[in-house]
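FW: tagging you since you asked about this chain on Friday. Here's the raw sequence from the shared folder, copied in full. Didn't touch anything.
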Amino acid sequence: MVSDLEGDSLGFSLVSSSSGIYTMPTYSIDPITGVVQVLALQQGLLAINLEVQEYRNGTPIGRS
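HL: got it, structure written out here
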């Protein structure tokens, strides 16, 4: 698992775009490393919104 500078564990997920003008490409994400792999591109404006969850000793303490 990835850690931040304070030693807290980080988890990653993708969230939908809040704007209707963007399209999410077909993708996969590793929830532990945050590595995103785009599997198929479409034409248009693409958006990938990444959410980072922060955990201290297994307890969620924040997200952005």
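FW: The radius of gyration is 14 Å.
HL: agreed, and The mean pLDDT is 84.
FW: great, closing this out.
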